[in-house]
Amino acid sequence: MKTRSWLFVPGDSEAKLAKAASVGADVVVVDLEDAVAPPAKASARELAARWLGAHSRQVVAGGGFGRFVRINALSSHLWRDDLIAAMQGRPDGIMVPKVAEPDQLRILAAEIYEQEQRNAVPSGSTRILPQLGETPLSALSIPDYAREDMPRLAGLTWGAEDLASAIGATRKRDASGQWADVFRMVRAQVLLAARSRSLTPIDTIHADYRDLSALKAIAEASCADGFAGMLAIHPDQVPVINAAFTPTPEQVEQAQTIVDLFAANPGAGALPLDGRMVEKPHLDWARRILDRAG
Which residues does the UniProt record annotate as the domain HpcH/HpaI aldolase/citrate lyase (predicted)? Predict the structure, then answer.
């Protein structure tokens, strides 16, 4: 499954869900949390389950898209009902917001296991993508994920909007357009924790969905920083994000040259290439580029 673009689609909008499969997102995230008002939660669960069933793993296999569901926070009274409904549609994964600490995910993992058994889903196949750093406690616990062994984790992502509200921030970026200190710290920790466990790091949303030129610069910087994908809140953002996280032909050619060079010289630690020395970190980079290129 590619992981460049993760498009949120409101779980209570039949029209938006109907279009989601044709947008080109690598992952469609049916949102039962922020995008759905409290009176619509129950109907959104039913609609989400039907949509997931109509776009099953068999239907989207072989170049299709991933199907995740964002449930409500584990601190709420809503998440178990969300999970029960979602698992009837056999999703690829569950996105969970406002995670305070890793222990919360153990509770969720146990509940997912029970629902897998009830819905004849292969045990352990339903992944988890937590949104971290949305509260001060969550931000301070991000390094813990580098020391935790959680097989269900698909990756790590983070949320700037809720964090800004939680700490009383009136800005998220400085005058130059860069993340302000707290947000930069959270983002960096998510990236490092994910990579330390060979998980997929996914960058947060760009809230101004109309400003695609700014999104292009932000997504390209995110890819250059080491993220593997980015959350999206509007279909128009998807092609911009996909392009930013797709290796260029030049990068693919360079990566293949490095891989071929080491393959022709097994056991070598460093090799000359075009007037410079390439070593294992360059080989790791090359393999990652080729993997992203498919």
Answer: 4-235
238 vs 230: CA distance, rounded Å? 9
DSSP H or E segment with residue 232: strand 229-232
User: In the structure encoding, which two tokens stand for residue 242, read together?
Assistant: 């996909």
Tokens describing residue 75: 């601190």
What span, in angstroms and rounded, lies between the C-alpha atoms of 294 and 285? Answer: 14
Element holding 107 (H helix, E strand): helix 102-118
Per-residue model confidence as pLDDT tens digits over 83-106: 999 999 999 999 999 999 999 999
Strands 5-10 and 229-232: parallel
Quote the CA–CA distance of 198 and 192 in Å, as a whole number.
Answer: 10
* CB-CB contact of 163 with 184 (8 Å): no
Tokens (6 digits) for 87? 């698992």
